[in-house]
């Protein structure tokens, strides 16, 4: 922002549609929220700014929601399990590269089709290419969302709204308290632009990974690093915006999906200028990474690799976090805390830059309803990576499977609160728990 302002003239805003529950944002949390609400009997709309559902899965090509999963891991069930079954049935899920792991990586293109079908099966109304800008409020109550799209500025009215934008766009503009990044200096987790390569010798690449058990170890997480190591040994400086490792999913016969190589520590996903800079910076970085593969990656099958495509957008790992009555903490997660208002469980698993906790045992913690309920605002719930937590909990709360549990709980709570003629925050927790169990979620 440059500090100047202009005055907008007041418009009459046409109503595009009305519904019981409006879910803003169609990522893992939003899809689960919409399915949860629809299964609980609500007439539901899912609004998404791009042309497909999936969020980071499809927009940023993040394909492995459950790479961490081990033989004994206790899984939360619900929509995440249903998605996995649908992806396996479409022959669009492969085992991840880590050993041991019983988790899957998804084909992020087929995911778009799967998501369309799933939404249709639950009679949810999709609204794509539609940006939710600000909440439409009466006093402190959210009654819908103002949107911008090719149809112009319109309103979608709803009895309940769920913010699944990842960034908490709606809750922040509704006036709910939130925080962003590190409490010390505001630092956010880095963004990554994923990309796909073709012309890769996959058998050679897999053999290079197999030679070194560290490459595939989920805890060591050293991933594929040999090509980068050779460049350093040859006296090359490490690339400025890259890690010297790479995670990939093979897409035989010649393609791979590349994760982690590019890293932008300056990215702020709530700042349009920062997003613009990051896309340009990281596209340039990807080209440098590919050049390194050509120079040093022949033995690993990368010597003739060609760029197939960049992910649709830079992947954002962290922005706003709701501050609600309870902020779940890293300690509560690691100690397997139990809560009376539990709306789901999650394995004791963390994946952050400085922490890895792989769920080799069946231990888990419970997720309290309070972390999705904003303060000061009525009939709005907030699910996904912007739930209320301390920053040391983010390595868990940003995980897609976790986001889906909070989404499904928000969907069910919103639908039931309409039937109970009470606000989203005052819904009967016991009824939410029962409905979630009916929907296949493990609650206790
Ligand atoms: C490179 C990278 C690698 C990762 N690796 C893993 C991994 O291996 N495993 C894992 O579990 N997680 C991983 N994550 C984290 C995970 O992808 C995210 O934390 C998770 O997708 C968050 O889900 P969400 O539904 O809350 O938000 P998102 O996935 O961000 O979805 C939000 C959706 O809302 C839409 N939206 C946003 N604002 C608006 C608006 N105002 N109006 C309309 N629509 C809007 C967006 O377009 C998007 O579709 C990774 C993230 C990145 C960036």
UniProtKB/TrEMBL annotation:
Q: Which Pfam families match?
A: FAD_oxidored
Entries under InterPro entries matching the protein: FAD/NAD-bd_sf, HdrA-like
Keyword Aminoacyl-tRNA synthetase listed: no
Q: Which molecular function terms from Gene Ontology are attached?
A: 4 iron, 4 sulfur cluster binding; metal ion binding; oxidoreductase activity
**Keywords annotated in UniProt:** 4Fe-4S, Iron, Iron-sulfur, Metal-binding, Oxidoreductase
Protein name, entry field:
FAD-dependent oxidoreductase
Protein's organism: Massiliimalia timonensis
């Amino acid at each position: 922002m440059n500090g100047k302002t202009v005055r907008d003239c007041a418009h009459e805003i046409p109503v595009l549609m009305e519904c019981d529950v409006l879910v803003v944002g169609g990522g893992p949390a939003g899809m689960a929220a919409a399915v949860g609400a629809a299964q609980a009997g609500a007439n539901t709309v899912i609004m998404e700014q791009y042309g497909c559902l999936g969020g980071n899965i499809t927009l940023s090509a993040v394909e492995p929601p459950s790479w961490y999963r081990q033989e004994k891991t206790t899984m939360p069930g619900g929509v995440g399990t249903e998605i996995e079954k649908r992806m396996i049935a479409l022959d669009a899920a492969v085992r991840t590269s880590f050993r041991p792991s019983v988790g899957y990586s998804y084909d992020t293109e087929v995911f778009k089709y799967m998501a369309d079908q799933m939404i249709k099966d639950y009679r949810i109304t999709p609204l794509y290419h539609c940006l939710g800008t600000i909440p439409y409020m009466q006093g402190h109550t959210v009654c819908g969302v103002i949107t911008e799209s090719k149809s112009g500025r319109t309103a979608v009215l709803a009895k309940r709204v769920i913010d699944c934008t990842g960034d908490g766009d709606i809750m922040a503009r509704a006036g709910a308290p939130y925080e962003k990044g590190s409490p010390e200096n505001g630092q956010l987790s880095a963004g990554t632009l994923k990309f796909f390569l073709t012309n890769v010798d996959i058998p050679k690449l897999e053999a290079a990974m197999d030679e070194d058990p560290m490459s595939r170890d989920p805890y060591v997480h050293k991933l594929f690093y040999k090509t980068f190591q050779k460049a350093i040994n040859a006296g090359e400086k490490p690339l400025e915006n890259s890690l010297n490792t790479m995670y990939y999913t093979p897409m035989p016969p010649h393609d791979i999906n590349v994760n982690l190589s590019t890293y932008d520590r300056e990215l702020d996903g709530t700042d349009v200028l920062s997003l613009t800079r990051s896309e340009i910076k990281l596209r340039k970085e990807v080209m440098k990474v590919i050049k390194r593969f050509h120079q040093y990656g022949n033995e690993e099958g990368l010597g003739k690799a060609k760029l197939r495509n960049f992910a649709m957008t830079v992947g954002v790992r962290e922005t706003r976090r709701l501050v609600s009555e309870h902020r779940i903490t890293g300690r509560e997660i690691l100690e397997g805390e139990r809560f009376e208002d539990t709306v789901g469980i999650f394995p004791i698993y963390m994946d952050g830059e400085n922490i890895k906790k792989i769920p080799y045992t069946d231990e888990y913690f419970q997720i309290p309803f309070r972390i999705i309920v904003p303060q000061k605002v009525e009939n709005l719930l907030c699910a996904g990576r912007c739930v209320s937590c301390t920053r040391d909990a983010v390595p868990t709360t940003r995980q897609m499977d976790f986001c889906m549990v909070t989404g499904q709980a928000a969907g069910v709570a919103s639908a039931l609160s309409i039937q109970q003629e009470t606000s989203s925050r005052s819904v009967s927790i016991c009824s939410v728990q029962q409905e979630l169990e009916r929907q296949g979620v493990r609650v206790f």
